[in-house]
Amino acid sequence: MSNRSDTYRGRLLRVNLTDSSSKEEEVDPDILRSFIGGRGLGAALLYNEVGPGVEPLGHENKLIFNAGPLVGTGAPCSGRFCVSTKSPQTGIYLYSICSGRFGRMMRKSGYEVLIIEGKASHPVYLVIHDGEMIVQDAGILWGMNTEETERNLRQKFSVRGGVSVACIGPAGENMLKVSCIISEKRAAGRGGPGAVMGSKNLKALVVGGDNQVSIYDEPELKKIMKNAHQLIMDNPFLMDSISPYGTATSVNLSSAHGVFPVHNWQRGVFEDIDALRPQRIRKEFLLRDKACPACPVACSKITAVTSGVFAGAKTEGPEYETIYAFGSACDNPSMESIIYADMLCDQLGMDTIACGVTIAFAMECFERGILNIRDTDNIELRFGNGEIIPEILQKMVKKEGIGDVLSDGVKRAADRIGQGTEKFAMHAKGMELGGYDPRGVKGQALVLA
Ligand code: SF4
Questions:
Q1: What is the average per-residue pLDDT within 334-362?
Q2: ipTM
Q3: What is the pLDDT of residues 16-31, one digit of tens each?
Q4: Interval 50-78: pLDDT, tens
Q5: Is the pLDDT of residue 292 over 90?
Q6: Which atom of ligand 1 is nearest to the CA of 77?
Q7: Ligand 1 atom nearest residue 290's Cα
Q8: What is the mean pLDDT of the chain?
Q9: 307 backbone φψ class: left, alpha, beta (φ>0; ψ -120 to 50)
Q10: Which residues pair with 427 in a beta bridge?
Q11: pLDDT in the model for residue 160
Q12: CB-defined site of ligand 1, < 6 Å
């Protein structure tokens, strides 16, 4: 059993990229007690740290990474970390939760909160290990996709034992407002946190170390964890639906209730639904199930395409929202193209929801004759044409031709195209809508408000 002093207490490392300095602090105990961890603590810290006039992509914006008190304790489903910042898409508060090992390794590095401020004069990455922080030149990594970046850094630091990496791809480097932060093929995805990292010339964070995640009353926590584990195992939705099919199981639910957005939100039922069902993914594309540390659910699905034009694509997913964005929203029944697009978005560091919804919008512009074939660089941007999605994503990340118009998401694309297109640009406050139609899921309207 540990004493109180070495358990969770908001150990914070503040890193200033402008002068490469860092300072150890502790979160104000009143704030910690009130907001505990995760998104609550991230929001409270951001509120105190970033004023209303701060530009999201300016050097005064800050990035907050935090891992809550259960992270690293072995509690079921606790393998998460939270990223909070001011969103370049909405101009307001952004939080994004990402699973995987990064949160646990961050706590093992000695910190529960990282606040990153300022802007480096050139591309850098941070190594935070056993209570020490160093800023390293990232020139060689700049331009690499997230897979290459992570592989490179993990190889380099494997001598120090386990490390975890969170990084941006070319989309974040180019400050696309649809860019995200990727860690172990998982994304802190919504609202453009990758662009904030890119604006700071920060390519990656490497965290790890040997610090023990101390528990104040281990026997009591073990008892609670055992109960929680049993509750999960007894939950039929988690074990009979989420466990075999992942979040893709929601395709069946949304479709049955007519709230699965189709054809850029013009309908709520997809005619070719069998092509997108989770049962098909499991039968035809699944390689294996994967779980975050200490999770009995194992909702992650590693899938691959073995034949056809997208043969060789391999991804962790696709999640429900990705199937909606690249599938039903684009009227696209090609699961192969969805898996490929999911892989590409992870590699380039782009949010699949933002990209899919923006492409669906462009398809509607094309079919209404607002965009013509010259506007789209000779690409037939029609609903159902899943084969063109990867090409559009590549153009978006390079800000090339039609990709430049779409690169900052659907609201900015509608602003640029004009001609009344804002009426069918599906976003709330600049961020593309997730895949539950609030006309049928009333509570979702509150989420979007
Ligand atoms: S495997 Fe899925 S259910 Fe389990 S912690 Fe990770 S994201 Fe959550």
A1: 98
A2: 0.98
A3: 999 999 999 999 999 9
A4: 999 999 999 999 999 999 999 999 898 88
A5: no
A6: 5
A7: 1
A8: 95
A9: beta
A10: 432
A11: 63
A12: 77, 79, 99, 291-292, 295, 297-300
Provide CB contacts within 8 A for 122, sequence distance 6+: 137, 139, 201
Q: Residues in the chain, how many?
A: 449
The topology (CATH level 3) of 4-208 is: Aldehyde Ferredoxin Oxidoreductase;  A, domain 1 (3.60.9)
C-alpha 367 to ligand 1 mean position (Å): 39
Q: Which residue out of 186, 247, 292, 301 has the highest number of ligand 1 atoms within 8 Å of its CB and is therefore the one to mutate? A: 292
pLDDT tens per residue, range 299-317: 999 999 999 999 999 999 9
Query: Would you kindly state where each structural domain of the chain is located, as residue ranges?
Result: 4-208, 236-448
The arithmetic mean of pLDDT across residues 88-94, rounded, is 96
pLDDT mean over 396-419: 98
Options 3.30.160.20, 1.10.569.10, 3.90.700.10, 3.40.50.1860; which CATH number does 236-448 get?
1.10.569.10
CB contact set of 93 (below 8 Å; sequence gap of 6+):
43, 46, 47, 84, 86, 87
The ligand 1 atom at the shortest distance from the C-alpha of residue 295 is: 4
Q: What single-letter amino acid sits at 402?
A: I
